[in-house]
Amino acid sequence: MAIQQTFLMVKPDGVERQLVGDIVDRFERRGFVLKEAKLMTISEDLAKNHYAEHAERPFFGELVEFITSGPVFAMVWEGENVIALSRLMMGATNPAESAPGTIRGDYATTVAENIIHGSDSLASAEREIGLFFGK
Ligand code: RTP
Ligand code: MG
């Protein structure tokens, strides 16, 4: 398995609840390296582009509204198998199914406000890093 990079983002609910430090700490302790990070407010255009795969889903409007509702903490992380391992650390999309010990399993109860985003594939990681960090 090669060294990979992934895009992770603490969503507005996670920033509001002051979970940025805890989340960064979890990935550092796992052995991953933080390569880029910024606190930013996402524009409607960027939100729609980032979540374009969900454009036809009934929750798309709410998703865009939520992700633009306050600052997010956008990050690029690097390490062995980081794309899949960070998804495991985040837990299932729906916190009703996220295992305790995962980020969503420890901090979230609803799918609409589930604390963190992580790229789901190598192609998504490259696309999202480009969108948010311009490379
Ligand atoms: P994300 O993209 O945010 O990392 O989450 P994910 O891969 O685990 O889940 P995905 O299927 O990509 O869904 C993106 C986000 O849409 C919201 N969602 N709401 N109301 C609903 O039924 C519903 N389903 C998904 C979630 O906030 C999810 O993280
Ligand atoms: Mg996703």
From TrEMBL:
<keyword id="KW-0067">ATP-binding</keyword>
<keyword id="KW-0597">Phosphoprotein</keyword>
<keyword id="KW-0808">Transferase</keyword>
<dbReference type="GO" id="GO:0046872">
    <property type="term" value="F:metal ion binding"/>
</dbReference>
<feature type="active site" description="Pros-phosphohistidine intermediate">
    <location>
        <position position="117"/>
    </location>
</feature>
<comment type="subunit">
    <text>Homotetramer.</text>
</comment>
<keyword id="KW-0418">Kinase</keyword>
<dbReference type="GO" id="GO:0004550">
    <property type="term" value="F:nucleoside diphosphate kinase activity"/>
</dbReference>
<dbReference type="GO" id="GO:0005524">
    <property type="term" value="F:ATP binding"/>
</dbReference>
<keyword id="KW-0963">Cytoplasm</keyword>
<dbReference type="InterPro" id="IPR034907">
    <property type="entry name" value="NDK-like_dom"/>
</dbReference>
<dbReference type="GO" id="GO:0006228">
    <property type="term" value="P:UTP biosynthetic process"/>
</dbReference>
<dbReference type="GO" id="GO:0005737">
    <property type="term" value="C:cytoplasm"/>
</dbReference>
<keyword id="KW-0479">Metal-binding</keyword>
<feature type="binding site">
    <location>
        <position position="87"/>
    </location>
    <ligand>
        <name>ATP</name>
    </ligand>
</feature>
<dbReference type="InterPro" id="IPR023005">
    <property type="entry name" value="Nucleoside_diP_kinase_AS"/>
</dbReference>
<keyword id="KW-0546">Nucleotide metabolism</keyword>
<comment type="function">
    <text>(Microbial infection) Catalyzes the phosphorylation of dZDP to dZTP, when the bacterium is infected by a phage that produces the substrate for the synthesis of dZTP (2- amino-2'-deoxyadenosine 5'-triphosphate), which is then used by the phage as a DNA polymerase substrate.</text>
</comment>
<keyword id="KW-0547">Nucleotide-binding</keyword>
<keyword id="KW-0460">Magnesium</keyword>
<comment type="similarity">
    <text>Belongs to the NDK family.</text>
</comment>
<feature type="binding site">
    <location>
        <position position="114"/>
    </location>
    <ligand>
        <name>ATP</name>
    </ligand>
</feature>
<comment type="function">
    <text>Major role in the synthesis of nucleoside triphosphates other than ATP. The ATP gamma phosphate is transferred to the NDP beta phosphate via a ping-pong mechanism, using a phosphorylated active-site intermediate.</text>
</comment>
<dbReference type="InterPro" id="IPR001564">
    <property type="entry name" value="Nucleoside_diP_kinase"/>
</dbReference>
<feature type="binding site">
    <location>
        <position position="93"/>
    </location>
    <ligand>
        <name>ATP</name>
    </ligand>
</feature>
<feature type="binding site">
    <location>
        <position position="104"/>
    </location>
    <ligand>
        <name>ATP</name>
    </ligand>
</feature>
<dbReference type="InterPro" id="IPR036850">
    <property type="entry name" value="NDK-like_dom_sf"/>
</dbReference>
<dbReference type="GO" id="GO:0006241">
    <property type="term" value="P:CTP biosynthetic process"/>
</dbReference>
<feature type="binding site">
    <location>
        <position position="59"/>
    </location>
    <ligand>
        <name>ATP</name>
    </ligand>
</feature>
<feature type="binding site">
    <location>
        <position position="11"/>
    </location>
    <ligand>
        <name>ATP</name>
    </ligand>
</feature>
<protein>
    <recommendedName>
        <fullName>Nucleoside diphosphate kinase</fullName>
        <ecNumber>2.7.4.6</ecNumber>
    </recommendedName>
</protein>
<dbReference type="Pfam" id="PF00334">
    <property type="entry name" value="NDK"/>
</dbReference>
<feature type="domain" description="Nucleoside diphosphate kinase-like">
    <location>
        <begin position="3"/>
        <end position="135"/>
    </location>
</feature>
<dbReference type="GO" id="GO:0006183">
    <property type="term" value="P:GTP biosynthetic process"/>
</dbReference>
